[in-house]
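[step 3/7] fold_predict: job queued, chain A
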Amino acid sequence: DPAFGTMDLIMGPLYPATIPVVGDYAGMNAKTMVNPVSSNELIISGNPYAFLTSSTSGTIIDNVLAYATDSLNSPRAYIIHGGKASESEIAEAYASQFADKGGEVMSLFPFDYSKEGFQNLMDELAPLQKDSLAHVFIAADAPVVALNTISAMESMLSRAPIFASKDWLDMNQMDFEQLEKMKVYFYHPQFYDTDEPATRAFIRKYVQRLSFYPSPYAFMGYASMYFFGSALHKYGSQLPVSLHKAGFVPGLVYPGYNYDGGNDNQYVPIVRFVKGSLEVVNYPEPEQSLSTERY
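[step 4/7] structure written:
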């Protein structure tokens, strides 16, 4: 398509089959390509012009580790993972990197889905009854893992911080008051605060135009277009290089972006319930802004 030659910014593509083709084109022609929905590291690997709005699993691990060790000063970790190969890989990577930072991995435990699973989990986590400094990292999105872990730690009166996927927030079986009491932190790359004025304005205008509530993909697309469109306006053809130098930049709807060190978003919001509402606990100081108009 000749129109591609006039484009400065490519949003997408969204379908996996066409991503390598467009990625090759972007790399050869110095066109910035942004995928607003994927967290697949292969999209950006070896291509300085390809970016992800979201964060890869490795970047999520980096953010959780930084908060657990630097903000909570936790020297020990209990790590649980589900039955998926990807969950096992994330758990093993977390264990390896935590050890590299000087932490002590007390347990790397694959959840047991048998009828003895709950008791086995209780036995594995038993030291947490007396360990107030350790934390628990869970790489699993299955409700059975979430419910059993919370039940086990409640029964032993443990208040060790728990780090879990944002997917736990979609489980109907989980009570938010319970999650707040148990000090569960969620790593949430797509977090947005519906109480923020910019978010409320987007929702209001979206509903006025289309007569239904925006989906998570609508939030992704809007936030991505605003951020990268503003960056293109400010940096022009120097967009890729300039983003790496910009540090943390506040976003619109999403809390912010940081491409200092990678082509996926290096900032992953970590949230927890405070008085019934989700709050970001690791919001950094902005280094600059792309626009003074927030909404």
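[step 5/7] annotate
The first strand starts at residue 9 and ends at 11.
The first helix runs from residue 19 to 29.
exit 0
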